[in-house]
Amino acid sequence: MSLLPETMLKRKKIYVACLSGLGLLVLLSLYKTGSVKTTSSGAQDCFFCDFAHHKQGPPPILEVETNEFVIFKDKYPAAKYHYLAIPKEHLDSFSVLNKSHVGLVRRMESGMKEFLKSKKVDPEKAIIGFHIPPFISVKHLHLHAIYPPSDMGLGNKISFMSSYWFKNSNDALRELEKREL
Ligand SMILES: [Zn+2]
Ligand SMILES: [Zn+2]
Q1: Tens-digit pLDDT profile for residues 127-162
Q2: Quick one: which of 22, 39, 116, 119 has the most CB atoms within 10 Å?
């Protein structure tokens, strides 16, 4: 009996085990990111909407507030600096956006970058972007900004790496420009 097929089978098994381990890590870290509670019925019982509109607490401290968006610290920071920018208007996720949202996303991104600078963080060295459904922890659009990446554990590194589950803001804006209205 040749050993070859068995070796190949073993390799395949290891490969599958690695892949499922990776998937599990992504899901676990997403669960810890953002918040535990997810809403299924949109704006009605969306606690991010409550945060943005100063409704029932305990709300996080709003570090930045404009007429369009707010910025606050992530409840489960992946690194020393981990902030979220969310629009005041309820939008489920990056998937529901179109070309008309380019301006909003640009202003959220530049607002976040200015805020990072005020914290003496170089925005070019931070991880800034969106999770893509179904890999979202809260069903209200939120832009992550994380620094330094070296603080992040393996699970978060995977969760926030440029991939089909996480889009950095440059790629996100490029994609929005191409979407229909
Ligand atoms: Zn909302
Ligand atoms: Zn996220």
Answers
A1: 999 999 999 999 999 999 999 999 999 999 999 999
A2: 116
3-class DSSP assignment, residue 40: coil
Q: What is the pTM of this model?
A: 0.78
Q: Which residue has the tokens 């489960």?
A: 76
Closest ligand to 156 CA?
Answer: 2
Are residues 79 and 146 in contact, defined by beta-carbon separation less than 8 angstroms? yes
Ligand 2 centroid to residue 74 C-alpha, Å: 10
130 pairs with which residues across the strands?
Answer: 167
Q: What CATH number is given to the structural domain containing 88?
A: 3.30.428.10
Measured in Å, residue 71 CA sits from the centre of ligand 2 at 14
How many domains does the structure of the chain reveal? 1
From start to end of 34-163, where are the E strands? 62-65, 69-73, 81-87, 127-131, 143-147
Q: Is 142 a catalytic residue?
A: yes
Enclosing domain of residue 70: 4-178
Q: Which of 82, 131, 142, 144 is catalytic?
A: 142
Is the link from the previous residue into 148 a cis peptide, with omega within 30 of 0? yes
**Mean pLDDT over each residue of the chain, to the nearest integer:** 85
